[in-house]
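Usage

Read records sequentially. Each one opens with the input sequence:
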Amino acid sequence: MENNKYHLSIKSAFASEYAFALKAQNFHWNTEGASFYQLHLLFERIYDEVYGVVDQFAEELRALEIYAPASYSRFSMLSAIDDENQVPDERAMVEELLADSEKMAGIFKLMYDMAEEAGDHGLSNFFADRQDQHKKHSWMLRSTLK
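and closes with the structure output:
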């Protein structure tokens, strides 16, 4: 596997994870409506969990001698998670974050496969854990919509 493609994919996954956390925090701050309290706590739980691994993710990049992207412009260029510049209603927030969480689970599945192919088994374990966490976030968000 070409290292440049692998490294770019890892940076993209990192930027996407950071953007996902930022969106969850945005929704935490700005949710309102009948389910305000429950969603406020759910969004906080999600962004806390994701932010809790961002530093570890950056350190995984550095261990591969990859510089971690660390600016809004780089995150914007690399992220697969779209910005949310509006304040959607509470249902739309949950739907959007669910779609993004499922996207992140898919990204981490691909990253797992790439890391395994590269022989980066410790990193593939990290990606497997991230995929599992996003599946859990998706389950909670999906259940909230019922």
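Summary fields computed downstream for this record:
- The radius of gyration is 15 Å.
- Residues 90-118 form the longest helix (29 residues).
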